[in-house]
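Please go through the protein record below and see whether the fold suits the sequence. Record follows.
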Amino acid sequence: MTGLPVSVLDLGIEPEHRSPGQSVADVVALARRAGQLGFRRFWVAEHHGSRAVSGGVPAVMLARLTAETASIRIGAGGVMLPNHSPVAVAEQFGTLGALDPGRIDLGIGRGPGSFDPGYIDALRLGAPPLSGEGYASRIRELLGYLRADATPGVRVWLAEDYPPEPWLLSSSASGAALAADLGLPMSFAYHIRPEVTAESLAVYRDRFTPSAWRDRPHVMLGVGVTCAETDGQAAEMARSTQDMLVRRAAEEHPQAGAEGAKARPRFLAGSVHGCPETVARALAELVHRFTPDELILVAVHTTVADRIRCVELMSEQVITS
């Protein structure tokens, strides 16, 4: 038992025998089950140009997920802001908020969401990568549309009236510093960068500036989880899923595959696997070490049946009434 709110982030892992359409339906099925089980939030990621993961436009997926669930918060984990116009994101998420007030989360990230340079170039209309200050400026613009203090003369009425809850996604100390300076809650990707988590959380908490969004630091820790009935089953599932993702990345983008193979041990270090009791103990240790305010679990399973079973098993251990 962690005693904290616990959420689910789905990467939309696409098994080799499933079509993209089937995999999108799988995300909907997992969201329904997570809502029934009492998880706090269900987030989807933005990915492009890969058959290994589904999705690409979180706002479109979220519109369906809010219709398919009752009370669980639904959000993007996240929108990769360098790919998008801030005013367009404000319009999209304001519309989502108007359709289902009080349930929408807007996680903001910096990565491209793709290993494919051509795809990234197409998304960004040939624009060069954003500098750190350029990224921060784009976030401030987006936040301004949610509070009617952005570009003079530009008002996004739906976003002002039905603002999503903004979060900054981070996997580094610099990202944590930006979240602190903006006064935003932070979702930190321990599952991606476990080795910099302690430093980054310290930076965030030390530098945090109260804002209209939060008056104190608020951390949600992202942890990869593979859970099955036994430790042995979970270990085998974790290995096979990671092997599949690295292999398919190498097939699609050879350089990305090489990088993925190098990153695999780090990703596994940021994940826990085992039976429910084993995973619950590991999560409790992470909570003791990093003192987050919330957890978000990344179910690292190849099939939707296994992901659903993972959240079912974990709900018995981490969901408190």
Notes: The two ends are 12 Å apart (CA to CA). The chain has a mean pLDDT of 91. The CA atoms of residues 84 and 124 lie 8 Å apart. Residues 6-318 form a domain with the TIM Barrel fold (CATH 3.20.20.30).
